[in-house]
Amino acid sequence: MRFLFCLLVVAGGVLSGCRPDQIEHLRNTKELAVEAENWQVKRILPKDLLRATRWAGDSLTGYADRELNRVLAQKLQEGGVAAALPYCQPETYAAVDSLARVLEAVPRRVTAKPRNPAHQAKLVAAELTPDTLRTVRRPSTEVFFYQRPLVLRDAQCLRCHGEVGKDVAAADYALIQKQYPQDQATGYRLGQVMGAWQVQLKRAGVAEFYTMKTRKIMKRRKLF
């Protein structure tokens, strides 16, 4: 009892000796609360994984398309079709491959009229149009599938894929045929579907992408 009484006396003395201005309060409590919520284990439902598959597919293929347009514009300016022809496979770009590895995805472009026979494949949809919605499905527990139409939207692509003699110069087409004797990828117009992007994703990559996509991000406070 004497020990407990002494302890209470000491504690009371310490607390009474602390002034309000000496107590250090936690700062950024809202940011800390958001960060704590982000790290909570959340249950991801099957419908969430399908939604994340679409997000991941859109992000990966959209980035690949932008990189393709950027690289082709540069190569066409530097050396015409001869310089651009080897770069018409954005799925092989280092930057696109790096993003695909993060998403644990394997992207490819397929078409019924390929330039390279290796890219010929059966499409999931019976008919693809520019307005066709994306196809998202789950073939197995650990694998997800994404597909969307591959539409010719950039006029610079007509220099290799347009009408021969009109959009594609005769000399350029001779070069294309020399490299791809079985070429079928000409005769397109702006807005036409050339094929499809198809992406196979692993469950772990889809789940991680969903987690990052749905994290709460605090708005930065104005300093002034």
Short note summarizing the structure:
This protein has 224 residues and is α+β, with helices and mostly antiparallel strands. It is built from seven helices and four strands.
Description of the molecule:
The protein is of the alpha+beta class. The chain has one domain (46-212). The chain contains seven helices and four strands. It has helices spanning 2-16, 29-38, 46-84, 94-103, 158-161, 170-179, 203-213; strands spanning 105-110, 135-140, 143-151, 193-202. The chain has a four-stranded antiparallel β-sheet. A hairpin with a 2-residue loop joins strand 2 (135-140) and strand 3 (143-151). Helix 3 packs antiparallel against helix 4 (94-103) and helix 3 packs across helix 7. The chain starts with a helix and ends in an 11-residue tail after the last helix. The model is unreliable at 2-11 and 32-39 (pLDDT under 50).
Structural key phrases:
224 residues; 7 helices; four-stranded antiparallel sheet; DUF3365 domain-containing protein; elongated; disordered N terminus; alpha+beta
What's the number of domains? 1
User: What is the strand tally?
Assistant: 4
Class by alpha and beta content:
alpha+beta
Mean pLDDT: 81
Radius of gyration: 29 Å
Strand content: 5-15%
Number of helical stretches of at least 4 residues:
7
The low-pLDDT segments are: 2-11, 32-39
Q: Please provide the ordered H/E string of secondary-structure elements.
A: HHHHEEEHHEH
Biggest pleated sheet: 4 strands, antiparallel
Strand order of the largest sheet: 1-4-3-2
* Alpha-carbon distance between the two ends: 57 Å
Shape: elongated
